[in-house]
Specification:
Blueprint: H1 9-20, E1 47-54, E2 59-64, H2 77-84, E3 93-95, E4 118-120, H3 121-130, H4 134-143, H5 147-161, H6 183-194, H7 197-204, E5 207-212, E6 215-220, H8 224-227, E7 238-246, E8 250-259, E9 262-271, H9 278-293, E10 301-302
Antiparallel strand pairs: 1-2, 1-9, 2-10, 3-4, 5-6, 7-8, 8-9
Protein name: D-alanyl-D-alanine carboxypeptidase
Signal peptide: 1-29
Family: Belongs to the peptidase S11 family.
Length: 308
């Protein structure tokens, strides 16, 4: 039986009081004594919702509006991959038709599939994870039995995992009426995904190669903490997972990193500061805090036990 995360007002107030008296540790610093107390949470966090969790134990270290229902943008592709990835051999080939790409949203991110082209399933997943290609999601969903069938499967998968604030209408994460997820649920999906070898492989790939009529071309991951691009430094120990952007959802990110044998996972939804690359800066600060806080804060809640 899964245990849902709930606020503990008295605990949170006590931690906030102690944190206010505690100096900020340098990034990546390790505590020298439990008597130091918990580190101070990063300042200037503007995200509408966020979660920091220990991916190994499932302990939620800190959170802000973790169950608020928000547009997830392409971070919803984590749930899509959890649902569809096990269904096809990565070497399987598929010839793209016009019906495969019917209905794709205007302005959607694409990896560049062409009608009549033949692609391996692993090419489609690389396009999904690295370039957030909604065209690749459309093809995989059609192979899986169709768009609405896939959405229903994703909803069933989310419930089975213990997610209670996710409803899928558009499997690629494109804005759709009635579609939502939460920082808690997306953290859960990211943690579950890292347990799958193929998911983890695609999620951590900074770049890959994709077939075109002119030959293989390099594609870079749009997750800037992973690729180290557009003025954002690669985060030490980063292992993925998925970023996104839509008009309604703003910038969204599920990111995980591993240091000293521990994995910290954070989800940041829709920063309001307006700062360039704000979602990456806030995620970086929360990852730093998560590593510094290990063993120094009590659980504010728990993620459900992994499936299987």
């Amino acid at each position: 039986m899964s245990v849902r995360f709930r606020f503990r007002p008295a605990l949170c107030a006590a931690l906030a009081f102690v944190a206010a008296l505690t100096p900020v540790l340098p990034a990546g610093a390790e505590p020298t004594s439990a008597a130091q107390g918990p580190p101070r949470l990063p300042r200037h966090l503007s995200a509408r919702a966020w979660v920091v969790a220990d991916a190994d134990t499932g302990q939620v270290l800190a959170a802000h509006r973790p169950h608020q229902r928000l547009a997830p943008a392409s971070t919803l592709k984590t749930l899509f991959a959890l649902t569809v990835l096990p269904r096809f051999d990565s070497r399987m080939r598929h010839r793209v038709t016009s019906r495969d790409l019917a209905g794709i949203g205007s302005g959607s991110s694409r990896v560049g599939l062409r009608i009549g082209g033949t692609y391996r399933v692993e090419d489609l997943w690389r396009g999904t994870f690295l370039k957030s290609g909604n065209d690749a999601v459309r093809v995989l969903a059609r192979m899986n039995g169709g768009w609405w069938h896939t959405a229903r499967q994703m909803n069933a998968k989310s419930r089975a995992l213990g997610a209670r604030n996710t409803h899928v209408v558009s499997p690629d994460g494109y804005d759709a009426r009635g579609q939502f997820s939460s920082a808690y649920d997306l953290t859960l999906f990211g943690r579950e995904g890292l347990r799958n070898r193929e998911f983890a492989y695609y999620a951590r790939s900074a770049y890959g190669y994709f077939p075109t009529p002119r030959g293989w071309v390099r594609i870079d991951n749009t997750n800037r903490l992973l690729a180290g691009s557009h003025g954002v430094r690669r985060y030490p120990g980063i292992i993925g997972i998925k970023n996104g952007y839509t008009t309604k959802g703003g910038n969204t990110l599920v990111a995980a990193a591993r240091r000293g044998g521990r994995t910290i996972i954070v989800t940041v939804l829709n920063p309001q500061s307006g700062a360039r690359n704000g979602v990456y800066h806030e995620a970086r600060a929360l990852l730093d805090w998560g590593f510094a806080a290990r063993g120094r804060v009590g659980p504010a809640g728990w993620l459900p036990k992994p499936s299987g």
